[in-house]
Request: fold
Amino acid sequence: MASVIPSARRTTFCMHRYFSRSWLALLGLLAAVSVAAGYEVAFSDSDYSRQVCSGMWGGSNTYINVTFDIRTSYGQVAMAIYEWNDVKYLGAVTSESDDSLPKTYVCTTDAVKSGFCSYEDIGKFIFYSDDGTTMDQTSFWTASVTLNQTNPLPRGLTSWQTRRGKTVHYMPRQEAGPLNPSPSGILAYTVPIQYQVRKTGYYSIVPVTVISPTVRQTSSVHPTYNGVVLFKNTFEGQLPAADYPKVNFYLIMFFVYALFGCAWAWLCFKHITQLLPIQYYLSGLVAFMVVEMAANWVYYRYLNAHGKNAASILFLFVVAILDAGRNALSFFMLLVVSLGLSVVRENLGKTMTRCQALAAAHFVFGVLYAVGIVELELESTSALVLLLFVIPLAFTLSGFLMWILHSLTATMTQLAARKQRYKLKMFQRLYYILLAAVIIIAIFFVVSSYSFSDRLAEDYAAKSWRARWWLLDGYLAILFFVAFWSIAYLWRPTENNRR
Reply:
């Protein structure tokens, strides 16, 4: 089954205004953030894949609620919920001699005749184990659910519980018994079905329409269903479990950037009469990055509270523009420094125009990439579409890096010829930092390409949901942070700036 898966004083004053405005913006935006119940996924019998899957952070109050729309749902549904490690127990091998035949997943009269299940389990998913494991020892839960029925529930079949003002259906648990016991007989749906989750994992909900001889259809309407699955994690909000680590990550990055920014501002103030033009640019970029980290944090906080809507899409473009602008400005600054502006040459002439054109292209492709990795479903998007978002950015990035390294070599050659050893030492260290960054990025692309090459595998989402945010966001953010502050340390304000 497929997974679904300047002056100096003005500079210091401007930095103060940046930090003050960022805090005011945070307070204003967070005031509008209200916490939502959980991550919701709509499902329908017309979906290409009949299962809803998501990672979950398990805890004492975590659960899955399955709600059918009683206005548009009719007939009988075979339903199963399980953690992905137990998928091997889903369905029975149809033929030991013919591997081309798919498994038999639902208990029908034919399955009963073949000995795959008993008559009492008709309409349910088949639990099959050849290692002696029982259903109670796994996360597997299955039921034959009738929709839009008026018959009363069999006595003793269900219990009722109110959670957050909503009535939910859950199976009574016996002492020392399974956490989610499967009901016997037929379950008449009237309220949301609740599945308790205590362990972190990747959970799947599979509803399939069936026609059972025990429940005759009294209408000519074909069995159909629509509904919503709610994943209630250990955190409050609508983000999927795979994306929630970004909230805390960008909060930490905001405070770290702000702390380093304060240290940089102190150095600028201490050596205010010795500041160089490059240090004005660095000061502005530091303030820009503090604002960017704050914007990323508030964006994911907003998504967690309100989910995807028109405002979140607009917010996404703002964050994408900030991120792409940060990268383009950083590489542009590195390039003109590597070309020896104000050190070897008074101006760059037409070369400056080419630098600006490359920075503009990198900015545009950066925006497209940032939006793409958030909006696209990696498991279902074609490789060609993914490459259209990655290759242009990779070309401009490679162009920047190669041009910077080549220019650095030429600048260091000129400084060595002039015997300007102090400046030469700074540029040599810059060269080593960038060379290390290139090597790390190359390793990253190899690792990420290897990881994403398996994205169509059945168990890809189940194995990668915890680490995917790190590959897409965290790794490069940490690399940029380390590289930027290493370079900023080399060009930090000192009493010998103009030596």
User: Anything to note?
Assistant: DSSP finds ten helices and eleven strands in the chain. Residues 1-36, 150-167, 214-219 have pLDDT under 50 and may be disordered.
